[in-house]
């Protein structure tokens, strides 16, 4: 007989970290911390929940995840290569026609490869270099202007990072910025709500016959309104591109020529070839655009925000980074991407930030076939959460895991590319993040430019130790409070 188990190392994270060293080796004993949810027989839900009654059991759940990360993401990567289809995800993202939420299969392979070829490949990412450099220079100018125009010289750095990432993704995906327009500002707000709703708990996913409750508690109405507004905005974007393409004489891809064609242009080019049973229909185009915003903007600005917060908390690390950046960029007005190649400490700082503050606790996977994990039979359709947060703070893999110490990456080959399973902020395997290169290019340039151009301090002379490092709840774990700083321009 097959028993479904639900591996959840996410509950409760901090407790689990504290007690993990006391956990017995779960290879030797059955994972008693994982038992069927007492509700399962009543609800008929396929998901069985952890039923931890003691701290010891919590720690066992955690240990299990430490071992099973290889099992899930390497040994049985194919078996766990799908995503659970949720009610909110289906309603908000065109029936999960995007890359992130679509179930494993031919369609997912096709849309993932389209997104990589037309936006996320090394070649495409390099071709957007001018966009990154222009937008970063603009952000630096804005920081300078905001600090001089406000009497208290305070600057909301979180806002600056949000605008930067939004503008970059808008320019490369949609061909222009929308931040100055009313529609663009509303789209930004809608994306924030959409992010919350995609990750929000929907009782119908777990207890299907209680789905009616969403009509009473207002969730259904909220989801419908948001998806309608987002669809109107995206329709407008696609129509604008269709009109433009009709006017252009030649409609060939020209990556070398200042990205004459953006992501939407390229998606529209694919569309006519597949008229019957088209894989890339209008909804797919809108879903893929949305995917790039949902997966690509918050994750990037969150990394910048946490990195900067840790630098403010650790002035010696900030100084060491500034010395590296200012030495390499000596005599230059602006940092270019060529300068980044030799900024080894910068790369170590960002890695350490991703280790201690991974922006995503990994998106759930779902089993597509019967498989045996660690001696346990798992049926198809079981959700699995791999907790990147807990894994990257595991004392069995990391010395002083709670300490922010970039030096640990300096003489180490450990990278985030999905081969070193103690550090997987971008996931691993078939469903690993395809936007890693895109994200790191934006992150490195922005962070290096800020520390190059400014000395930063906290308002009212407060010290880094006072900085609020509380994490906000949600799919993307950003800082609960925005990062407000006092920037003093540094004369290069
Ligand atoms: C620091 C920035 C980023 C982080 C930390 C991050 C993290 C992740 C993680 C953890 C996953 C799930 C991996 C798994 O299940 O194994 C993922 C998936 C994904 N990411 Fe990212 N990501 C980042 C930036 C981006 C960017 C910039 C884009 C695109 C513009 C992007 C597009 C995607 C997509 C499309 C998927 C779904 C892949 C699939 O299911 O096949 N990400 N990301």
Automatic annotation (TrEMBL):
Protein name, UniProt field: Uncharacterized protein
Organism (species): Camellia lanceoleosa
């Amino acid at each position: 007989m097959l028993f479904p188990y639900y591996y959840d190392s996410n509950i409760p994270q901090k407790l689990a970290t504290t007690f993990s060293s006391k956990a017995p080796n779960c290879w030797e004993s059955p994972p008693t911390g994982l038992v069927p949810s007492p509700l399962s027989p009543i609800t008929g839900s396929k998901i069985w929940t952890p039923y931890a009654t003691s701290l010891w059991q919590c720690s066992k759940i955690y240990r299990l995840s430490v071992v099973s990360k290889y099992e899930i993401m390497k040994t049985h990567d194919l078996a766990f290569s799908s995503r659970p289809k949720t009610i909110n995800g289906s309603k908000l993202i065109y029936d999960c026609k995007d890359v992130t939420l679509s179930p494993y299969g031919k369609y997912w392979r096709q849309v993932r490869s389209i997104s990589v070829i037309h936006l996320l490949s090394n070649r495409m990412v390099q071709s957007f270099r001018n966009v990154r450099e222009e937008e970063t220079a603009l952000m630096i100018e804005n920081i300078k202007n905001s600090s001089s125009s406000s009497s208290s010289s305070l600057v909301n750095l979180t806002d600056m990072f949000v605008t930067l990432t939004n503008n970059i993704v808008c320019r490369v995906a949609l061909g222009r910025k929308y931040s100055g327009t009313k529609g663009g500002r509303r789209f930004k707000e809608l994306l924030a709500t959409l992010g919350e709703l995609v990750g929000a708990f929907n009782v119908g996913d777990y207890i299907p016959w209680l789905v009616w409750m969403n009509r009473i508690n207002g969730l259904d109405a909220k989801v419908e309104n948001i998806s309608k507004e987002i669809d109107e905005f995206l329709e407008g974007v696609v129509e604008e591109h269709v009109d433009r393409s009709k006017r252009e004489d030649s409609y060939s891809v020209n990556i070398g020529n200042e990205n004459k064609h953006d992501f939407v242009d390229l998606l529209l080019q694919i569309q006519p070839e597949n008229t019957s049973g088209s894989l890339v229909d209008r909804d797919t185009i809108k879903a893929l655009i949305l995917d790039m915003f949902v997966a690509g903007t918050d994750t990037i600005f969150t990394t910048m925000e946490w990195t900067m917060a840790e630098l403010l908390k650790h002035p010696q690390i900030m100084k060491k980074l500034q010395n590296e950046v200012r030495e390499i960029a000596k005599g230059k007005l602006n940092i270019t991407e060529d300068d980044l190649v030799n900024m080894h400490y910068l790369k170590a700082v960002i890695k350490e930030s991703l280790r201690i503050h991974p922006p995503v606790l990994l998106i759930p996977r779902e089993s597509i076939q019967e498989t045996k994990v660690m001696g346990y039979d798992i049926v198809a359709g079981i959700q699995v959460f791999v907790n990147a947060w807990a894994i990257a703070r595991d004392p069995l893999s990391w010395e002083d895991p709670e300490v922010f110490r970039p030096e640990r990456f300096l003489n180490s080959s450990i990278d985030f590319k999905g081969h070193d399973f103690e550090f997987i902020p971008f996931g691993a395997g078939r469903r690993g993040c395809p936007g890693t290169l895109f994200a790191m290019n934006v992150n490195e340039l922005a962070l290096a430019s800020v520390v190059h151009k400014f000395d930063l301090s906290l308002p009212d002379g407060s010290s880094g130790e006072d900085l609020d490092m509380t994490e906000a709840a949600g799919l993307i774990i950003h800082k609960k409070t925005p990062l407000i700083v006092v920037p003093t321009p540094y004369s290069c």
